[in-house]
Specification:
With 169 residues, this protein is of the alpha/beta class. The protein folds into 2 domains: 103 residues, Rossmann fold (3-Layer(aba) Sandwich), CATH 3.40.50.2300; 49 residues. It is 64% helix and 11% strand. A 4-stranded parallel β-sheet has the order 2-1-3-4. Helix 1 crosses helix 5, helix 2 runs parallel beside helix 4 and helix 5 packs antiparallel against helix 6. The chain is rod-shaped.
């Protein structure tokens, strides 16, 4: 998944800082010089991290709140760029990217566990209903064969669900 950083600041020299951070992290860093430009950027694409200059937050708290709400999946960071240098921004963005990766990994694992639980429940119901259907005395031999195939396929599926997936990094 491509990762881009949005740096929202009115500070002069922000492009230089963005270029330095981008070089160090090996990813694009876009600069938005005001709230309107930042909102337009957030509507255009998804960002991994949004760095908001503290001076903008203090000057327009309501506008900053709108930016936080529109950030989507971007990890929000607030930094005082008047005091902090590019190295601080770099450290904060790097830490935010690591947090984002951890959180995404945890979310995907949780989603997989939920799906696995739901599939196991459905599979158990399928097996139970098929076994009950096999006990019906009026089944034709052809229907019995087909129901046993369903039971066999469900057993294969259950084994596949029990086998841990390969993890690819």
């Amino acid at each position: 998944m491509p990762q881009t950083v949005l740096l929202v600041t009115t500070m002069s020299g922000a492009e230089n800082c963005a270029a330095a951070v981008g070089r160090q992290l090996g990813l694009p860093v876009e600069v938005a010089e005001n709230r309107r430009t930042a909102l337009a950027a957030l509507r255009r694409r998804e960002y991994a991290v949004m760095v908001l200059d503290e001076s903008l937050v203090e000057a327009d708290p309501a506008g900053a709140e709108v930016l936080w709400q529109q950030a989507g999946l971007a990890v929000p960071i607030q930094v005082n760029l008047g005091i902090s240098g590019c190295n601080r921004v770099l450290r904060e963005v790097r830490a935010a990217l690591q947090r984002r990766e951890r959180e995404l990994s945890l979310a995907m694992r949780a989603a997989a566990q939920i799906m696995e639980g739901e599939m196991n429940t459905t599979l158990t119901g399928l097996l139970l209903q098929t076994q009950l259907a096999l006990e019906e005395p009026t089944l034709t031999p052809g229907t019995v064969v087909k129901l046993r195939q369903v039971v066999e396929l469900a057993g294969v599926l259950r084994e596949q669900l029990r086998t841990p997936p390969l993890v690819v990094n």
